[in-house]
Every structure is written in structure tokens, then in C-alpha cells.
Specification:
The complex is a heterotetramer, with one copy of chain A (749 residues), two copies of chain B (81 residues) and one copy of chain C (235 residues).
Chain A: H1 6-11, H2 26-36, H3 42-51, H4 54-57, H5 62-70, E1 78-80, E2 87-92, E3 95-103, H6 105-110, H7 112-129, E4 133-143, H8 149-169, E5 173-180, E6 189-199, E7 214-219, H9 229-235, H10 254-269, E8 275-278, H11 283-294, E9 299-302, H12 315-320, E10 326-331, H13 336-345, E11 349-356, E12 362-366, E13 369-374, H14 376-380, H15 396-401, H16 413-425, H17 433-436, E14 447-449, E15 456-459, E16 467-473, H18 476-481, H19 483-500, E17 504-513, H20 520-540, E18 544-550, E19 554-555, E20 558-559, E21 563-572, E22 589-593, H21 604-610, H22 622-637, E23 643-646, H23 651-663, E24 667-669, H24 677-682, E25 689-693, H25 698-708, E26 712-718, E27 722-725, E28 729-732, H26 733-741, H27 743-748
Parallel strand pairs in A: 4-5, 9-12, 17-18, 24-27
Antiparallel strand pairs in A: 1-2, 2-3, 3-6, 4-6, 7-10, 7-11, 8-10, 9-11, 12-13, 14-15, 15-16, 16-21, 17-21, 19-20, 22-25, 22-26, 23-25, 24-26, 27-28
Helix pairs in contact in A: 5-20, 7-8, 7-10, 8-10, 10-13, 16-26, 19-20, 19-22
Chain B: E1 2-10, H1 17-28, E2 34-47, H2 53-67, E3 73-79
Antiparallel strand pairs in B: 1-2, 1-3
Chain C: E1 4-9, H1 16-26, E2 29-34, E3 45-48, H2 68-78, E4 83-86, H3 88-95, E5 102-104, E6 112-120, E7 136-143, E8 147-149, H4 152-160, E9 164-168, E10 188-192, E11 198-201, H5 221-234
Parallel strand pairs in C: 1-2, 1-3, 3-4, 4-11
Antiparallel strand pairs in C: 5-8, 6-7, 6-9, 9-10, 10-11
Helix pairs in contact in C: 1-5
The chains are: A alpha+beta (749), B alpha+beta (81), C alpha/beta (235).
The complex binds adenosine-5'-diphosphate and magnesium ion.
Chain lengths: 749, 81, 235, 81
């Protein structure tokens, strides 16, 4: 094959090009020709196609995501907002924290272990590229039906991949979710998040400036991994019947990534980089065009200098390769030598592949011949933008009219007891220890809270005890019933979880997992969810700092439940004041904070007992969430509570069961006036938490709640070795433990 | 009783970090002249009865669906003599 | 002058910072050591920390044991220098034949991270003098290849010579950290050499030296105070 | 270029949970008649030049000191034809 150089392309305007196979639409191809004033070369076509894919360009979601910026609340803590590799917030004492959640859904379905592993690797490099030391990871997961044979393939592989990669990197896994629902059968959701810490002055940006500065590619050699992966995987539904289209799988090497992290941190310490970008989806195409586009524009790259694992790769393939564990840095000429020496120390391969130039073109050469000559902004930042049509689905009204509050309720205390046991044993409510025990939560020696606590928490300063906390949540069932409210509930729950741990919620990252944007129903769900999230962030004062969109999560015509996953980052000035969930001291008083209403739409009860999804999700009251959070934070800071657990799916009884099992102590509960036992135990009203108050603090605590106007109802006491509901039933802890802890091993071990 | 061996190796285009780590260590240990190392798995199956064509076909299927992950691995089935 | 305790960083070592911190918490001077450097910088004792050195590729510890720093450590350990191998460090010590036996994949084939109850079986080594014989402690455990194995004769010898230093404590709930987590022969969690200066174990005492962090206990601190006392009294 | 293969298997007396897990899964997948499964490692070495006796002896030593841990594993070295 002859090399398709720029010169050759100019001379052969009518040559056939595989733009369709690369996922481009006819008008997109036409636009590329217009931008260049000629037909693109093969390499240029590869770059545009991969960078203009849904995954890289956000072409369907962009118009909606803008709200996160437009509605962003005033927040002094925000140091770097949306648009960079990850957002950065100020957490005090000169520290800045960067965090983000990303999806690796489609690759994890094809090859669960490697898909999940490289998902962790990718998000960690994003955080690293900001200049931060990664300090923890989280992994919100969604799988199909727990008893489906394919779940037995996908789940253990995903969990082993996340563990295998994260454990080997030395990053504690401090939280996440595991949710089962048959809507995810052909589309498991593998989201991964990472938190990084740095000093303010160490923040780095992905931009190439300063003509003459060198472009250095370092890390693993480039191979044929995931060639075409981004465009083929993310712009079309994965279709099992066409194995020929399966792209080469990306394989991760966590050991290489660990070296990359340490090497990069040493490079940062010596202040050797002017700009830096990780290589993720779209590999070098993305890194070079984004760096150049964000800088002054000019860059020249000698592609044949790239270290290859497979010598037969064509230049197009090298540009598209998604080989893992690579980074690209912009380095001043007099610092190159030191940069390369540090790489050598860590056994990391590094190569100068080009330099920043005066002009405004990204030019790429292959053995001296020019194969790319483009304005980088048109590749990286000025891709197509779609205003996809959307409309409220015709079935939405009927779904909401199918009221879960009208479902038959337990006839007597005995049936209620049986349903409670079924609930705590159901796969979604059961203990996830079998999964989370495969993750290292202790490494780095700073973990204060991890699973099964409400939020993960790590200390970031050994002297002052400054710490950060994170929780991720998202309830696809709620979002299906009402995407606007569902997205707000996801935020409210994560926010509440962080506050329950004693940390102050500060900022948000999200991963928006939806079906095909070409379906107006799905697009409506997406529009509603983003609007709901942006509005709620504004009210709660927590800006969205970055995130990720994953579309085309569907099998055939059927989309997954709309699943906005929200991560809230919080800060705590002194981690010794953190609040655990365990009820550990007999005699402490249990208070229910917030209001309980009859709210069963989308509830765990409606799913487990009736296999039902209908009605409206619980109502959201963001002012109440804010007040609840303030009380939880004050109470923890001032030592008024010894335990707190937020209430979410499964309601009060689920929270009490978890807190009792964690502390190894029972609880005696009294149904408050005005509530029936069923509603008291199982309703999923938002804005609530249960706290354990030492008797000596009761007055101070209730006074505070009273003064601030937060309903606080005394509902019982920590006592004995059973969960007793007075006048109704009791469940010995051993029986509760067996129900809660044997389910997942029974399904998977 | 007969022994059938199934060798499972990563496809040539797939990254083999284990093999690479081994290869990079060799010169340090004083072993030169090894240009490449790939690490894979070897399964030894003890089969009841004789291994006829039907049995081999079944083992082939087993390797394809279970012992190897054909998304990233190739395999070879052989009867050990 | 206080004692200097070195902690080696191999490529892929993960718990070196924690081990250095544990040394400091105990009051000794923590000295980072680098795998390519044969020089031990006058340390009085060495900790081989946990992690996945060289990605655990080939076998856990198999590649690290051939690094330059190990040549010196092997030589000096034979001469009596105290060496503690934690998790990956223990694996390196068996690969280096400073301790007998080998570590295999956990019998359940999963990585396991949990709080672990241990019984101190030998409180006379350089690293365990601050514990009582028979004392139960709780420290985090986290590994993939933690199943201790050796042939029967070696096991009998270890038992007879009191060289089983730690056993997984039987008799309670797994949820509370009791029981053998991986199929280790004779419930062995850690062993010592005949001289008592080289000790290896799979669980992580360096993660249990501060209240609040990790399991929230300080049961692991004794390793580091033991060695410090020994070194101070010897000097 | 010649290829030398080193097969490394756990010694027979050592418990092999990986092999056992495979064996236990087989009947569930509809494969009967496999009495035992052992899982080991296979290394494929690409050797520069020809593999004479001296080269084989060196590879044997490499296997003994490095590729296998002879406390728990046995190994076999073969030249691939
Ligand atoms: N995949 C996972 N990885 C890490 N931690 C997890 C995972 N799944 C669940 N957890 C942890 O288990 C605990 C219970 O999870 P969940 O019931 O979803 O919490 P909540 O309802 O408070 O959001 C939390 O500490 C959560 O972080
Ligand atoms: Mg919670």
C-alpha cells in the first residue's frame, strides 16, 4: 500500500474513503473535506473519525451538559472546572483535590476482566495528568439479573479486573455500588472513579505551548490495542452477531501503570513539564490534537519515532491505538535530559516524538513525509454538535400511574417480618463483602472509612488530619420513573452519605449512563436527568466539576434504565471526628432525622416483594437535604453522635440492620406515633438518616435539631442481640447476618 | 486413562505483560540471547477411557468455550504420548 | 542516636510508605532503600514491604529476589541483620531461600482483604519480643498468593524448632477475622529462620499502628517497637 | 530463531485449586469424563541463533533457578519443532 500523504491526497481528490466504516456520517465527512479544502488522508480520516465519535466529542450530549457550567453555583472552592481531564477543588491548607468518574461499559461486556481493569487504569491516568497523586478509587457497578448465567461470567471478571488492577497499583478502593437489574443484562455498567491530591501550585493542564518545547511520549510501547475501539465501540451498539467487528481488546499492565505514576510524580516534583495529557480513548490522536488545540495550536510530530510493540502497525493504526499506560508531556528543551533520566530510573520508555511549533497546524510525519496537516481545534474541540430530538415517552404517564403505594402490603407482623428478611437478603440489599473483600482498602495507610460505610474517607495530611470523603449513588429505577427527580435523588443520596460520614459535601462528578441518543425517549431521559442534576447542584451549592457520558447502552431496541451515577466529594478538617455507621454502644439512643411519608415507587420493597416498577419516586426536598447535612456535620464535629447511617433503598430497616451488624449490637425500635410499622420500616422517603446519640448528648442534640427545625424522632435504643420492633417482631442478629451475608457468596462463589 | 494437554497462549497481537517482565529480567540474571518470552497456561486433563475423535472434539469445544478466552487467547489441544 | 531501619522499594512495591511511617511511629529513623542500590546505607535492620513487586509476574517475589539490593540483604541477613518480610516481602524471602517453603495462590483463588486474627506463636524473634507467646492480635490481611506451603518434613521441623511465628487464629467468626483465610498449611501465617532475625508473614502489621486508620487498632506496632528495643539494647 | 518451550507444573503432591476449580466446573458445563485437571504455566522462548546443547543447558538452568520454583514446581524444557 502506498502511503497516503497530504500531497497524495491533494492529487487524488476522488479516491474512495471508508468514512462510513469508521463511524462518520456523510455530512461529517463533507465537513472534514471543507475544513481541509481537500480530501483527508487516511491518517487524518482516522483522527477525525475517532475524535468526532460520540465517546470523544460528546456531540449528542454537549448541548445539555452546558447547563452544568451555566447553572454552576458560586463556589470559591472550584479551582479547575469542566473541560480539563478532571475538575479540581480547594480543600484547604493549600491542598487541592481532583476527582472524576468514568465509564468502561462496553469493553467490560466483551472482556470483563480487561475491560474493567483498563477502566481503572484510564481514570487513574486522568487524575495523574492533573498533577495529582492518586489516593483512592471507587467503582459503581451495575449488572444483569443475579441468577443469569451471563452475570456469572461478567461480574466475577469485572470484580477481578478492578481488584487486579487497582490492588496492583496500590490504590485503596473506598467505595462504589453493586446493583443488579435485568435491564443491564446485555449492558453492564462499569464506572470507575478516582481521587487525587496535590498542592495548589502543582496543578497541571493539558496544553502545549511554547514553540520549541518537546513532545515526549512515555510509558508502554504502542501496540494494536483497541484499534478502532473508540469509534466502533462507542458510536454503535455492540452487536454480538458480528464478531468480525470486535476490535482488538485493550490489555492492561498495572505494574507498568504503577511505574508510570511514580515516574510522573517525580517529574512533577522537579517541575519538568509545561503541559501533560494522558493517553486514553483515541490514543495519540486525542493527546496530540487536544494538547495542540488547548495551546497555541502548532505541533509537529514524527510518528515513526513512537516505540512499537508490533512493528507492522500502519501510521493510521498508531494514531488510533489505545494501548494503555502511556502519557504525553510537553517539556522545555533544557529539561528533556532530566525528564528522560527519571524515566530511565523507573524503567519507563520515553521518546521525544515532536515539538511545539509557531504555526497553528498539527503536522504529523511518517519517515519524513507529511501525513497529517490539520487545524487541531477542528479535531479536538470543534467537532459536530447535535440537537437531537427528544420527547416525553408515550409510556411515561402509564408507568407513573401504576402506583406502587397501592400494592398489597403485608397482612400481619409475621408477614412483615418475612418480607424484611427477604429484603435484607435480596441481592441488591445484601452485603457486598464477597466483592469488596477482593479490593485492597488499606494500602497507603490513610484509609479512615471504606466499605460498608456510608462514604469512603482518606486522610490527606498526617499532621493536621485533614481528610476527604466520597460517595457514589444512582438509582436507575427512580430515574426510569422520573429522570429529573431520579437524577436529583442520586445527588441527594451521595450528598447525604458524605454528610453522614461527617464530611462537608463540596463538589460533584457524574457518569451519565443512558441508551441510544438517536431514540427520542432516551434523549428525553437524558435531557431531564441533566436538567435535574444541574438544578439540584445549584441549590445544594455543589458544582459539577467534570464527568463522563456513556450512551448506546442498549440491547437491540431496549435501553437500560436511565442511570445517572453521581459522586460527591466532601472534606473533613479532622478525620478523627468522622462518623461510622456501626451501632456499637449499648444504651445509645436512636433518632430518626427527617420526615417519613408513604413512598414506595421504585422502592426495594416493590421490587423484591412484587417485582414491580411504577408510580413516582420519593419526593426531593433539597433544602431539607442541606439542613440534614448541616446537622449531621455539626453533630459529628461536636461529638454529639457516635454513629450515623443515611436512609435510602430499603428504608429504615435496611439502615438499622446494617448498623447493627456492623457494630455487633442489636436495637429495640418503637414505631413513632402517626406511622404504621410497614411505612416506618420500608418507606424510602428521602432526606433522612438514623443516628446513635450517647445519652449524655441527647439534650444538646435534640435542642440543636429543634432550633434548626429538623424533625428528630426518638425511635429506640441500641440494645441486645436482635433487631426488635416493639409490638411487631424481632429478628436475632445471627439470623439477620445469615440472611444479609450469605446471598452474594451463594450466587457467585 | 489418557492425558490430553491444552496449551493456551495470548494471541500474538495482545500485550503479554508477564512474558515481558520475565524477558526484561533475564539479562540481569545473566541469560542473554532470548529475543522474546510469552507466558501462557498449560492444562493437563486426565481423560477416562480412550481419547477418540469424538472425545477430542468435545475437549476442543471445552477449550474454546471455557479453558481459553478466545477474545484474547489462542489454544492448541494435543494428546500426550 | 536512634536506630536506622531501611524499607526497600522495588518497582511495584506498594506499602513502602506505610512501612516507613510505621518505623517512624515506633520512634526509629526510617531509611528508604532502592532496589538497584547494593548499598544499605548503614541501616541496622530492613523491612521488605508489601505490594506487587514486578507486578507479581512469574511468581510473587520471583523477579525482585534477583535485584542488586537483595544480594546485600541476603548476605547480611545470613550474618544476623534483622529482616522483616511483610506479604510480598515474605514472598521475596521464600524465593530468596532465606525462609523455607513457598507461597501459592489462595485456595479460593481470590484476592482477599480483611481484618485478620493472628496468634503469636514465637515471641522471641527480633521482631516479636514485645508480644506475649500465645497473644492474639488483629491486623489487616490482603493478598492473592498467601497460601503457605512446604513439604511435611520442613513443616515438622518448623514446628519442632518453634519457628512458626504466627498462626491464623481458629475458633471465631470469619466476619470477625478468625480462621485460615487461604488454605495455608497448618494455619501458618508467618515463620522465622532458626536465628530469629529473619521473619516473614503475610498479614500487614504496618497497617495497624495508628488508631482510626485501617482496622483502627495498633496491634501491629509491636513489630516495630520490638526491633527498636533490640537494636537500642545491642548498641 | 528457534523456539524453546518450558512447561512448569505444580508438583503432584501440591494442591492445585485452579485445576480443581476447572474440573469442578466441567460437569456443570456438560463435559463429563475428565478425571483430573492440573493447571500450570507454559513459557515460549524465542532464542537467537541455533539451540545447541550448550544453549539448552543454559535454558535448563534458567528454568531451574528462575522460571520454576523447584520447592513447589516441576518443569520440562523442549525444543519446539
Ligand atoms: N463495587 C463496590 N466497590 C466498593 N465498595 C462498594 C461497592 N459496592 C458497594 N460498596 C460499598 O458497600 C457499602 C454499601 O453500599 P450501598 O448499599 O450501595 O451504600 P448506600 O446505599 O449507602 O449508597 C458502601 O460502603 C459502598 O461504598
Ligand atoms: Mg449509605
Amino acid at each position: 500500500m502506498t502511503l497516503d500523504t497530504v500531497k497524495h491526497a491533494s492529487g487524488t481528490p476522488d479516491a474512495e474513503q471508508p468514512w462510513r466504516e469508521l463511524g462518520l456520517k456523510e455530512d461529517e465527512y463533507a465537513r472534514i473535506r471543507e475544513i481541509l479544502g481537500r480530501r483527508p488522508t487516511g491518517a487524518e480520516l482516522a483522527m477525525y473519525s475517532v475524535m468526532w465519535s460520540e465517546h470523544c466529542s460528546y456531540k449528542s450530549s454537549k448541548v445539555h451538559l452546558r447547563q452544568f457550567g451555566e447553572k454552576a453555583p458560586e463556589n470559591d472552592a472550584l479551582l479547575v472546572g469542566i473541560g480539563e481531564n478532571a475538575g479540581v477543588v480547594d480543600v484547604g491548607q493549600g491542598y487541592a483535590v481532583t476527582f472524576k468518574v468514568e465509564s468502561h461499559n462496553h469493553p467490560s461486556y466483551i472482556e470483563p476482566y480487561q475491560g474493567a481493569a483498563t477502566g481503572v487504569g484510564g481514570i487513574v491516568r486522568d487524575i495523574l495528568a492533573m498533577g495529582a497523586r492518586p489516593v483512592a478509587v471507587v467503582d459503581p457497578l451495575r449488572f444483569g439479573a443475579p441468577d443469569h448465567p451471563d452475570t456469572r461470567r461478567v461480574l466475577p471478571g469485572v470484580v477481578a479486573g478492578i481488584g487486579g488492577y487497582g490492588n496492583c497499583l496500590g490504590l485503596p478502593n473506598i467505595g462504589g455500588e453493586v446493583v443488579f437489574d435485568s435491564c443491564y443484562q446485555g449492558n453492564p455498567l462499569v464506572n470507575a472513579g478516582c481521587i487525587g491530591v496535590m498542592k495548589h501550585e502543582d496543578i497541571h493542564l493539558a496544553k502545549a505551548s511554547g514553540p520549541g518545547n518537546k513532545v515526549i511520549l512515555y510509558g508502554a510501547r504502542t501496540g494494536g490495542d483497541g484499534i478502532g475501539g473508540v469509534s466502533v465501540l462507542a458510536s454503535e451498539t455492540f452487536d454480538d452477531s458480528k464478531p468480525a467487528k470486535r476490535p482488538a481488546v485493550q490489555v492492561g499492565d498495572p505494574f507498568q501503570e504503577k511505574l508510570l505514576i511514580e515516574c510522573t510524580l517525580e517529574i512533577f516534583r522537579e517541575k519538568l513539564v509545561a503541559g501533560i495529557q494522558d493517553l486514553g480513548g483515541a490514543g495519540l490522536s486525542c493527546a496530540t490534537s487536544e494538547l495542540a488545540s488547548a495551546g497555541s495550536g502548532g505541533m509537529r510530530v514524527e510518528l515513526d519515532r513512537v516505540h512499537l510493540r508490533d512493528a507492522t502497525l500502519s501510521p493510521e493504526e498508531i494514531l488510533m491505538s489505545e494501548s494503555q499506560e502511556r502519557m504525553c508531556a510537553i517539556v522545555e528543551p533544557d529539561k528533556v535530559e532530566r525528564f528522560l533520566a527519571i524515566c530511565e530510573k523507573w524503567d519507563v520508555i520515553a521518546t521525544v516524538i515532536g515539538e511545539v511549533t509557531e504555526g497553528e497546524r498539527l503536522e504529523i510525519y511518517w519517515h519524513g513525509e507529511q501525513i497529517v496537516d490539520v487545524p487541531p481545534r477542528t479535531v479536538a474541540h470543534e467537532g459536530p454538535v447535535y440537537e437531537r430530538p427528544y420527547a416525553r415517552p408515550s409510556w411515561q404517564d402509564a408507568l407513573q400511574a401504576d402506583d406502587a403505594n397501592a400494592l398489597p402490603r403485608p397482612a400481619d407482623a409475621e408477614e412483615l417480618r418475612a418480607q424484611v428478611l427477604r429484603l435484607v437478603a435480596s441481592p441488591n440489599q445484601a452485603s457486598k463483602a464477597w466483592i469488596t473483600d477482593q479490593y485492597d482498602r488499606f494500602v497507603q495507610g490513610n484509609t479512615v472509612l471504606a466499605q460498608p460505610e456510608d462514604a469512603g474517607m482518606v486522610r490527606i495530611d498526617e499532621e493536621s488530619n485533614l481528610g476527604v470523603a466520597m460517595a457514589t449513588d444512582g438509582n436507575g429505577r427512580y430515574a426510569k420513573l422520573d429522570p429529573y427527580t431520579g437524577a436529583q435523588l442520586a445527588l441527594a443520596e451521595a450528598y447525604r452519605n458524605v454528610a453522614a460520614s461527617g464530611a462537608r459535601p463540596l463538589a460533584v462528578s457524574d457518569c451519565l449512563n443512558f441508551g441510544s441518543p438517536e431514540d427520542p425517549d432516551v434523549m428525553w431521559q437524558f435531557a431531564e436527568a441533566t436538567r435535574g442534576l444541574a438544578d439540584a447542584c445549584q441549590t445544594l451549592g455543589t458544582p459539577v466539576t467534570g464527568g463522563n457520558v456513556s450512551l448506546y447502552n442498549q440491547t437491540g431496541e431496549t435501553a437500560i434504565h436511565p442511570t445517572p451515577v453521581v459522586a460527591v466529594l466532601g472534606v473533613i478538617d479532622d478525620v478523627t471526628r468522622r462518623t461510622p455507621i456501626a451501632f456499637a454502644e449499648e444504651g445509645q439512643l436512636l433518632y430518626l432525622l427527617g420526615d417519613t411519608r408513604e413512598e414506595f415507587g421504585g422502592s426495594a420493597w416493590s421490587q423484591v416483594v412484587h417485582d414491580h416498577l411504577g408510580g413516582l419516586p420519593p419526593a426531593v426536598d433539597l433544602d431539607r437535604e442541606r439542613l440534614l447535612a448541616e446537622i449531621l456535620i455539626s453533630a459529628s464535629r461536636d461529638g454529639m453522635i457516635d454513629a450515623a447511617h443515611d436512609l435510602s433503598d430499603g428504608g429504615l430497616v435496611q439502615a438499622v440492620a446494617e448498623s447493627c451488624l456492623r457494630g455487633g449490637k442489636g436495637a429495640r425500635l418503637v414505631v413513632p406515633d402517626g406511622l404504621d410499622a410497614f411505612t416506618f420500616l420500608l418507606s424510602e422517603s428521602a432526606g433522612r438518616a438514623v443516628v446513635a446519640v450517647p445519652r449524655s448528648e441527647e439534650l444538646r442534640f435534640t435542642d440543636m435539631c429543634g432550633a434548626r427545625g429538623l424533625p428528630a424522632t426518638r425511635i429506640g435504643v441500641v440494645d441486645g442481640d436482635a433487631v426488635e420492633v416493639q409490638g411487631a417482631f424481632g429478628i436475632p442478629l445471627d439470623e439477620l447476618r445469615a440472611a444479609h451475608e450469605e446471598t452474594i457468596p451463594g450466587l457467585l462463589a | 486413562m489418557a492425558r490430553v494437554v491444552v496449551d493456551v497462549m495470548l494471541k500474538p497481537e495482545i500485550l503479554d505483560p508477564q512474558g515481558q517482565a520475565v524477558q526484561r529480567a533475564l539479562p540481569r540474571l545473566g541469560f542473554d540471547g532470548i529475543a522474546d518470552v510469552r507466558q501462557g497456561k498449560r492444562f493437563e486433563l486426565e481423560v477416562d477411557g480412550t481419547v477418540d475423535d469424538a472425545a477430542l472434539a468435545r475437549i476442543h469445544e471445552m477449550a474454546e468455550t471455557f479453558l481459553a478466552n478466545t477474545v484474547i487467547e489462542d489454544f492448541v489441544v494435543r494428546v500426550e504420548s | 542516636m536512634t536506630s536506622r531501619i531501611g524499607v526497600v522499594t522495588f518497582p511495584g512495591t506498594l506499602d513502602d510508605q506505610d512501612a516507613l511511617r510505621a518505623v517512624r511511629v515506633a520512634g526509629a529513623e526510617a531509611v528508604p532503600l532502592w532496589h538497584r542500590d547494593r548499598d544499605l546505607h548503614q541501616v541496622d535492620a530492613v523491612v521488605l514491604a508489601g505490594g506487587f513487586s514486578y507486578g507479581d509476574y512469574l511468581r510473587a517475589g520471583a523477579i525482585s529476589r534477583f535485584s542488586p539490593v537483595m544480594e546485600t540483604i541476603i548476605e547480611q541477613a545470613k550474618g544476623g541483620m534483622p529482616v522483616l518480610g511483610i506479604c510480598n516481602g515474605f514472598q521475596i524471602l521464600t524465593e530468596a531461600h532465606l525462609l523455607p517453603g513457598a507461597m501459592l495462590r489462595n485456595n479460593h483463588l481470590h484476592f482477599i482483604c480483611r481484618d485478620q486474627r493472628l496468634t503469636v506463636e514465637n515471641a522471641a524473634t527480633a521482631w516479636t519480643a514485645d508480644y506475649e507467646q500465645g497473644q492474639e492480635i488483629s491486623v489487616p490481611l490482603k493478598n492473592m498468593d498467601g497460601r503457605y506451603t512446604a513439604d511435611e518434613r520442613t513443616l515438622d521441623e518448623l514446628e519442632a524448632e518453634g519457628r512458626v511465628a504466627f498462626r491464623y487464629t481458629a475458633g471465631g467468626n470469619a466476619a470477625d477475622g478468625y480462621g485460615n483465610p487461604n488454605g495455608s498449611l497448618r494455619d501458618i501465617a508467618g515463620i522465622t529462620n532458626a536465628a530469629g532475625n529473619v521473619v516473614g508473614l503475610m498479614p500487614h502489621p504496618e497497617h495497624a499502628v495508628e488508631p482510626l486508620i485501617g482496622t483502627g487498632g495498633t496491634d501491629g506496632l509491636g513489630f516495630f517497637t520490638s526491633i527498636l528495643k533490640k537494636l537500642v539494647s545491642a548498641s
